[in-house]
Amino acid sequence: MNACCRAIDDHFDAAKVQSQMADLEKNGPARETALLIEQVQLRAARSYDVLDIGAGLGVVAERLLAGGAHRATLVDASIAYQAAARRRFTERGLAERVTLKCGDFLELATQLEPADIVTLDKVICCYPDMRRLVEESARRARKLYAASYPRDNWLTRLAIGYENLARRLRRKPFRAYVHPVNGIEQVLRANGFELSASRQTWFWRIALYERAGADDARGVRVV
């Protein structure tokens, strides 16, 4: 396990995951997660497979499996997240349609098959090397690429800077990052994707990209 992976596993520990589980059961998915799911479902009406990177509790894959996906592969570096996701899928009778991979996506990437749709919900901000993460994940998306990441403005930079300072004072290794939106989109364009739709909250940008020239998940050719 590399340093980045260890930091993620330390940050998203059993206590934090249990707290998020309780919040999910009480309030449902966070607004930005719901918006990401909605954007994918608007473009994916037929059977498709999903690669969910930084899958957390598995909410994105769970909703997509219920709405048209036939299989999902979930990758996460947090052992606690993986255990919780496994329990949730087993309880919902979805375990046979799901493959769980624990570890750093960048270390596992060569072992993962491409999928029709790749999703990264609040994941790009967890990696210092945005370019490599986006490039490797985009290479595994046949049709659609959906991601949520912090908006690139002074407010989000101030908020994340404050959180990182607090972690530093507590001697916690995890850090979050605000990567330039133009930089993210530049990498995606270089890998054949164009922005199809976007939404935003005060903190997050939720964007859907489509691979030019590919048949989308509804069987319609993207031009």
Most strands sheet = 7 strands, mixed
* Poorly predicted residue ranges: 216-223
The whole-number mean of residue pLDDT values reads: 92
Range of strand content = 15-25%
Which structural class do you get from the secondary structure elements? alpha/beta
What's the architecture in CATH terms?
3-Layer(aba) Sandwich
- Name of the CATH class: Alpha Beta
What is the count of DSSP helices, taking H or I runs of 4+ residues? 9
Number of domains: 1
Give the overall shape, derived from the CA principal axes: globular
Order of helical and strand elements: HHHEHEHEHEHEHHEE
Number of strands: 7
CA-CA gap between termini = 41 Å
Q: How would you write the strand order of the largest sheet?
A: 3-2-1-4-5-7-6
Helical amount: 40-55%
Task: Report Rg.
Answer: 17 Å
Considering the protein shown, what is the CATH homologous superfamily? Vaccinia Virus protein VP39
Q: What name does the CATH topology carry?
A: Rossmann fold
Q: What this model shows, in words?
A:
The chain has a 7-stranded mixed beta sheet, with helices on both faces. The protein has helices at 3-11, 14-27, 31-43, 59-67, 79-91, 105-108, 130-138, 154-169, 181-190; strands at residues 48-53, 69-76, 98-102, 115-121, 141-150, 193-200, 204-211. 38% of the residues are buried. Mean pLDDT is 92; it is low at 216-223. Strand 1 (48-53), helix 4 (59-67) and strand 2 form a beta-alpha-beta unit. With 223 residues, the chain is an alpha/beta fold. The protein has a single domain, classed as 3-Layer(aba) Sandwich (Rossmann fold). The N and C termini lie far apart (41 Å).
